[in-house]
Every structure is written in structure tokens, then in C-alpha cells.
Amino acid sequence: MRRCGKSTLFKLYQNYLHKSGVSRKAVQTLNQVAQTVQTQDTLTRELKSLRGVKDNFRKFLLTLDYGRVSYDGIQHQNALKWLLGQE
What whole-number distance in Å separates Cα of residue 65 and Cα of residue 63? Predict the structure, then answer.
């Protein structure tokens, strides 16, 4: 299987949405999901992919950790509360 970069994957995702009839404006958030980011190495790794996408979309890091924090505009939220619309 051929490896490709994150920007390539994002472009493929955009093309998929376009072919599915979903406009670019309809996609307003980018979500990165991880079980936990309690160690600094894990947090850095998970934020790296969102920081690599240069756009104006809202970006979320969703984990099972509690607390709501912002890292350079990337909102870190509890995934369960986010799914239930509580945050």
C-alpha cells in the first residue's frame, strides 16, 4: 500500500465530498480523535495533524480526557460530551 501525506489525504477527502454533492462550505469542522492525550508526546502528535491543515475551519481534538482547553485555536474537548452536545 502506498503512503501519502496528510495534505494529500485532506485533498482526497475534499474531492470525495465534492463528488458526493457536499459543498466545501458545508464542512465546517475538522476533528482529530484519540483515546487520551495525557502525555506531552501524544498531545504533540495529535495536534500536529490539525496544525498542518491551513484553513479557517473550526478544529477539535476529541478525547476521553476531561477538561476543555484551546491550543492555538484547536479546541480540546471530551468526546462523549461533544457527541451529546453538552459542550
Answer: 5
The pLDDT tens digits for 23-71 are 555 557 888 888 999 999 999 998 988 888 887 888 999 999 988 888 8
Q: What CA–CA distances, in Å, run from 18 to 6, 66, 85?
A: 18, 35, 27
Domain edges within the chain: 25-83
* 28 close to 58: Cβ distance less than 8 angstroms: yes
From edge to edge, which strands make up the β-sheet containing 74-78? 29-33, 58-63, 74-78, 69-71
**Euclidean distance between CA atoms 21 and 27, whole angstroms:** 12
- DSSP assignment of 47-76: HHHHHT--SS-EEEEEESS---EEETTEEE
